[in-house]
Amino acid sequence: MANPDFLKSLPSFAERATQLSRHSTPYRDPVARIHWERLSRHAFWLPEQAVSLYGIEEYDALPLATRQTLSHHEFARFLSAGVWLESLFLQRLAHATLKGPRATRIYHLHELREEAGHSLMFLEFFERSGLDDSATAAHFDRWLTFLGRRLPFHSTLFWSAILLGEEVPDRLNRYVRLHAQGVCPVAVELCVLHSTDEARHIAYGQEVLRHRLERAGRMARLALGHALGRLLRRFVATFYYPPQDLYMRAGLPAGPWAARAARHILRRQFVAHCLGPTVARLRGLGLAISWP
């Protein structure tokens, strides 16, 4: 059940929000921090191991320029999905600044500023790269869009979904940070800046979820774990498995590329590697998530 006043009974929560707010100050516009002159089409925009078709024989036989172009389109979709997801969160956060404890209202405003900065950074990337940025909510998971707009803001399920929506793309950001060699420096900078802010947002979401679960019974935890398993699979499909038309736009020859990526063992292992820490953390909170 949603309870708009639940944070008021958690004195340590306000302290945590205040601490995170301090770390969000001073704010620096990410658009101004990126060295845009280093953006290049003659480099991968993702580590090649993170490209969805990596390790498939037909992909390995493609010219280097074609493989790089595919990484460009996959990275662009990753950013488009980020704009979509952050737009949902921004709508909900804006309403949350109107009421509640002052410390949490202040932190929500910091999140608003940072999430807006991320979307501006992504759109600037599209402007400078010349790639298509027309993807809208209709191009992504409509069920997730519905939940993002309709779930009660203070409900456990809403904050669980928010936590997953931040963790799932952030694991790819972190992978890019750790495997940056050969990747376009602008793509790396973008992932680093995004991940730095997301670390605070994830910490906040974890704190909300932890406090809510302290009051949850066994059946509620079981139900939430089941729901989160379904949500996780949908987020993974959105951020890690491109649709078929993306491969055509990237110039690959005709073929069932999306289906090949979905079945490919190396892709599944890559996703499991990226999301393993997220699943382990949620299971550590007592949530029996069935995944993969």
Automatic annotation (TrEMBL):
InterPro entries: AurF/CmlI, Ferritin-like_SF, RNR-like
GO molecular function, one term: oxidoreductase activity
Top-level lineage group: Bacteria
Protein name: Diiron oxygenase
